[in-house]
Amino acid sequence: MSSAVAARVIRMPSGLRNRPGASAGSRLGPLTLRNRFIRSATFEGVTPDGLVTDELIAYHRRPAAGGVGMTTVAYCAVAPEGRTERRQIWMRPEAVPGLRRLTDAVHREGAAISAQLGHAGPVADARSNRLPALAPGRFLSPLGMRMTRAATAEDIARVVRAHATAARLAVESGFDAVELHFGHNYLASSFLSRRLNHRDDAYGGSLDNRAKVALGIARAVRDEVGDTVAIIAKLNMDDGVPGGFWLDESLRVARRLQEDGTVDALELTAGSSLFNPMYLFRGDAPLTEFAAVFPRPARLGIRLAGGRFLRSYPYEEAFLLPSARQFRAELSLPLILLGGITRRETVEQAMAEGFEYVAMARALLREPDLVNRMRERPRTRSLCIHCNKCMPTIYSGTHCPIAGPPPPRPSRSSRPSRTAADDPSRTFPD
Is the pLDDT of residue 417 over 60? Predict the structure, then answer.
């Protein structure tokens, strides 16, 4: 562990660790949360220069004031080419002062804050980033419509080191936890997928080889920050695409992470940002709303063919719970359940079945104070109708359009233009 991290731990004033009177069930590694609700990562769409803005701070203060135990900042890329597109934060020294303002603001509301760290790999828009998108091999990315670049062993080593560096910067910025992104066909997830990984070297073939990127990242981060912050891995249970990463292999990777002792919890997710993003969300596919934010040629394409990419799946409460139960049956590692949690009864059911935490996103866009109201009135349920019309708002500041007007946006000069390269899949899911 670096001396900078050690010094930061000594002076950290958040008061969130080992809080007297906190329940044992809210312990997450070295961190004690005030409750079991986590605001999951959803790209906020308010960082036009890749740095913290007042809008980003307000975005996370709302659910913190509304009662969540922890909110998650998405998406903090570990390298410039690891951004899904150019407007996202990437972890560098210049970002630390703004990130410190953000973590201080959330701490003042009594909540903890986590940084989602990752490398987008083939999900990155090379056209937007003006950098090649790394992947296990070369193929045409449906997002940037450019060929990916096959990652070399040197690229992989660099990206692994970059995760450790990003984690150290997160600690220095005041974060209480880091979340490692191993889902949605981002870089680590793409190596896990047989559909995307056809390599014949040490990073391809067997699951042991395909898991080296994810396991190596987790080890590097743990070695860098020790137990000064909680470390969470966001792991796909399945990709939702033929020939992709599936539950049996995901369970094996989860067991390895548990055996290695590199993470304090797993957040269980699903879906592919490259091929099937709606597999995570369920509910309506907002094709009309997406088309409306694109220029005319792209608008027509989305109307005619968008349904092949943004497929509709019936919404069900806690729709990932059946798959997640199989992980709960085989692991002792704390698990975070996400996917369609809108009622207090669902939360209580998850706790009764042994899940330590629940993660929510869309419901908290509609009602940032939902957790407080659930505590005060047990019969409270979310007003979210799973229309997914929040998804296209990434271009103007992510919000629920049904709940009211959008939050203040960055100035016109700093807002990105809406181009065909700004693909709707890149933000949801994070």
Answer: no
Which amino acid makes up residue 347?
V
3-state secondary structure the chain: CCHHHHHHHHHCCCCCCCCCCCCHHHEECCEECCCCEEECCCCCCCCCCCCCCHHHHHHHHHHHHCCCCEEEEEEEECCHHHCCCCCCCECCHHHHHHHHHHHHHHHHCCCEEEEEEECCHHHCCHHHHCCCCEECCCCECCCCCCECEECCHHHHHHHHHHHHHHHHHHHHCCCCEEEEEECECCHHHHHHCCCCCCCCCCCCCCHHHHCHHHHHHHHHHHHHHCCCCEEEEEEEEECCCCCCCCHHHHHHHHHHHHHHCCCCEEEEEECECCCECHHHHCECCCHHHHHHCCCHHHHHHHHHHHHHHCCCECCCCCCCHHHHHHHHHHCCCCEEECCCCCEHHHHHHHHHCCCCEEEECHHHHHCCCHHHHHHHCCCCECCCCCCCCCHHHHHCCCCCCCCCCCCCCCCHHHCCCCCCCCCCCCCCCC
| Residue 395 annotated to the active site | no
- Per-residue pLDDT tens digits for 268-323: 999 998 888 888 889 888 767 666 766 665 655 666 666 667 788 889 999 999 99
How many Å apart are CA 206 and CA 198, to the nearest integer? 10
CA 84 from centre of chain: 12
Average pLDDT of the residues in 164-176 = 98
Q: Mention every residue, 6+ apart, whose C-beta is less than 8 A from residue 415.
A: 48, 396, 409
Which tops the pLDDT comparison, 158 or 141?
158
**Residue 225 · residue 232 · CB < 8 Å:** no
Residue 157 neighbours by CB under 8 Å, 6+ apart: none
pTM above 0.70, yes or no: yes
Q: Is pLDDT of 24 > 90?
A: no
For residues 234 and 61, what is the distance between their CA atoms, to the nearest angstrom? 23
Quote the percentage of the chain above a pLDDT of 90.
67
The arithmetic mean of pLDDT across residues 161-178, rounded, is 98
* CA–CA gap between residue 261 and residue 210 (Å, rounded): 19
Q: Which residue among 186, 203, 279, 395 is the active-site one? A: 186
